[in-house]
Amino acid sequence: MTKMDRTDQKILQVLAQEGRLPNLALAERVGLSPSACLRRVQELERSGVIKGYRAVIDPAKVGAGFIAYITVGLNAHTKAAQEAFERAVSRAPQVVECHNITGTVEYLLRIEAADLVDYKHFHTEILGALPQVDRLTTYVVMGSPKDLRA
């Protein structure tokens, strides 16, 4: 793990909120000279602390206004079953996040679909048809007062 000081942490905090902030503005926000700030950002990138930059897209504006989380329980607790399930969900464009979790189920998925009809098709015809799937529980997102994913 890379040793970070408060300045590095402040850089990360600012970039997590505004990844496209120019170096000059970032340097001003964290109290560094532009050259010192650039060196620190480059080191955070080189060491893998900063893994990349991405656009945050509003799902509703690209036709994915229905968002849900699904917990998935598998019918077999084997490596082969997990790998087959993970391969299948990696091909499904509706699955934007897949997390292997602890507890009474194996996976938590974030689903983005156009609407309830599109979601039902995915739930029944794609996810529900996978031979590894034993049980599904859906949690429909009603709103997101805090969402720091980038």
Question: How are the SSEs placed, and which strands pair?
Answer:
Layout: H1 6-17, H2 23-30, H3 34-46, E1 66-74, H4 79-90, E2 95-100, E3 107-113, H5 116-127, E4 133-140
Antiparallel strand pairs: 1-3, 1-4, 2-3
Summarize the structure.
This protein is α+β, with helices and mostly antiparallel strands and 150 residues long. It has five helices and four strands; from the N terminus they run H-H-H-E-H-E-E-H-E.
Please, could you describe this protein's structure?
With 150 residues, the chain is of the alpha+beta class. It has two domains: 6-46, Winged helix-like DNA-binding domain superfamily/Winged helix DNA-binding domain (Arc Repressor Mutant, subunit A, Orthogonal Bundle), CATH 1.10.10.10; 59-140, Lrp/AsnC effector binding domain/regulation of amino acid metabolism (RAM) domain (Alpha-Beta Plaits), CATH 3.30.70.920. The protein contains five helices and four strands. It has helices spanning 6-17, 23-30, 34-46, 79-90, 116-127; strands at 66-74, 95-100, 107-113, 133-140. Strands 2-3-1-4 form a four-stranded antiparallel sheet. Helix 1 packs across helix 2 and helix 2 (23-30) packs across helix 3 (34-46).
Question: What attributes does this structure have?
Answer:
150 residues; alpha+beta; Arc Repressor Mutant, subunit A; Alpha-Beta Plaits; 2 domains; 4-stranded antiparallel sheet; 4 strands; 20% strand; elongated
Number of domains: 2
Low-confidence stretches: none
Order of helices and strands: HHHEHEEHE
| Fraction of residues in helix | 25-40%
Strands of the widest sheet, in order across it, are 2-3-1-4
Average pLDDT for all residues: 94
Oligomer: single chain
Coarse shape:
elongated
Q: What integer value in Å does the Rg equal?
A: 20 Å
